[in-house]
Amino acid sequence: METQMFLKFIFFSSTLFLLSAFATATDVQYCNKKADYDVEVKGVEIIPNPVTRGQPATFSIAAATGQELSGGKIIIDVSYFGWHIHSETHDLCGETTCPISIGDFVIAHSQVLPGYTPPGSYTLKMRIYDGGKHELSCITFGFDIGVGSSSSSSIADS
């Protein structure tokens, strides 16, 4: 009985922590507002916000799924003032723990933006696919890159 109470306390505490972490999350829009995506995105947190060029930045996406996922990929497209400037593809299991169980999970990606990255407002589009290339979710959100450091760095590989 004490073990069950302890496990419930841990679950409740971690859920509260997750919800509080995303209380000041970035505004997220679905690519297709009429679609019924298999993965529901609950929020995006960017640390630091605004992103500082030449310094590590972490994008954490809180999501939920109604099906177990054993793999897939994430495709990220970045635009600057409406112009597409960057694309990258990541293994879903490289950004979260697989298999992903039914319920809540977090996708986290960290990288260092080059020191020469122009400051300003950017838009990120993220599509999530399962192993069968079925689109599970598609979101867009804005983020800012501040002036910060101008030291030369390369984009970190993930």
From TrEMBL:
Q: Which residues form the MD-2-related lipid-recognition domain?
A: 28-143
Give GO terms: molecular function aspect only: sterol binding
**Annotated keywords:** Lipid transport, Signal, Transport
Look up keyword Oxidoreductase and say if it applies.
no
| One GO BP | intracellular sterol transport
- Residues spanning the signal sequence: 1-25
Q: Which Pfam families match?
A: E1_DerP2_DerF2
Recorded hits in SUPFAM superfamilies, A to Z, give:
E set domains
Q: What does this protein do?
A: Catalyzes the intermembrane transfer of phosphatidylglycerol and phosphatidylinositol.
Q: Which family does it belong to?
A: Belongs to the NPC2 family.
Q: What quaternary structure, including any partners, is listed in this protein's UniProt entry? A: Monomer.
Its recorded name reads Uncharacterized protein LOC107476045
The record lists the organism as: Arachis duranensis (Wild peanut)
Q: Which gene encodes it?
A: LOC107476045
